[in-house]
Amino acid sequence: MKHNSKYDYPIKIETKLNEFESYLRKQRLAVSTIRQLRNYAGIYLQWLEEENEVLEEVDYNGFMNFIYQLKKGNGLNKVRRIIVAVRHYYSSLEIENNPAIGLKIKGQRKAVLNHLVRYEKLIKLYEEYEVENGDKSSSVDRDKRNKVLLGILIYQAVTTGSLQQLQVGHVRLEKGEIYIPSYRNTNSRTLKLATTQLLDLQNYLQIIRPRMLLNIHAKRGGRKPGTIKMELLKQQLFFSENGSISIKNSLQHLFSNIKKLDPKITSGKIIRATVIAEWLKTKDLRIVQYMAGHKWVSSTEKYNEKNLQSLQEALNKHHPFQ
């Protein structure tokens, strides 16, 4: 079967497509249908090669990134047909993990970009974030810890989930860097600490955090966890003042204070999106991909100024599959 020149693929991919074509013929499909499915499956296989992805390991989020790239240069009808081809390809290999099953595209929603803030506002927010001078040292310690949390959100653009994974050993003050472990759909990376962060981090590690550990069993308001896991707390960089491993409530308290200063900054997602978009103004795409911990370069491309409409959709938890 002859193929259009634009669907000529490397020998490795062509070999796989020949096997796929044999499978399709056994399904007694029309010649034109076989040709189209073969050509479109090749687009997916080529994407796998370019992104160094393993066919069997691509999950829903990974496939969304593939679709995102497709949508930049193809109409919705063609994207739908490519999804069908990928679905057939997985079936031909009898792979249970088929990310194309059940996905449909109904069209894009129009969105107005209103969730990003000016990067300068974030820098000013950190510099002016005040620590309350209360009577209780515990409240001061909490606020100082929260400022350190805020600094890592702003200067390293981590997700709030990644904050939970940080351990004391991940901070390397002598090198002026911090290691961010992999978490869910982000890769691990080592990032530089901003000069303005160093003093607050040093104070937190050497004074505030040890004092918080000592005060965990002190009587205070708030709900304590059923079991305080001290060994884990001693490893974690951040923990609640009542001894909980989770910092969910701590982050809620942090953003409650932030919203008083700037009502537009309501979540870590807004901070992360703003910072990544700012990085892309002066840094190479692949460098920003690494800094953001993105597994796929298409995830980083969404933050380009030209693609801010797509970014807004992501912030609103909208995606092309409905």
Structure explained in plain terms:
The chain has 322 residues and is mainly alpha-helical. The protein has two domains: 5-92, DNA polymerase, domain 1 (Orthogonal Bundle); 119-315, hpI Integrase, Chain A, CATH 1.10.443. The protein contains 14 helices and three strands. A hairpin with an 8-residue loop joins strand 2 (177-180) and strand 3 (189-192). 32% of the residues are buried. Mean pLDDT is 84; it is low at 108-114 and 314-322.
From the 3D coordinates, which CATH architecture of the largest domain would you assign? Orthogonal Bundle
First and last CA, distance: 36 Å
Q: Work out the count of structural domains.
A: 2
Number of separate strands? 3
CATH superfamily of the largest domain: Intergrase catalytic core
Instruction: Bin the helical content.
Output: 55-70%
Poorly predicted parts? 108-114, 314-322
| Succession of helices and strands | HHHHHHHEEEHHHHHHH
CATH class of the largest domain: Mainly Alpha
Q: Give average pLDDT, whole number.
A: 84
Radius of gyration: 24 Å
Strand content: under 5%
Helix-strand category: mainly alpha
The largest sheet is: 3 strands, antiparallel
- The 3D shape can be described as elongated
Order of strands across the widest beta sheet? 1-2-3
User: What's the multimeric state?
Assistant: single chain
Kindly report the CATH topology of the largest domain.
hpI Integrase, Chain A
Number of helices: 14
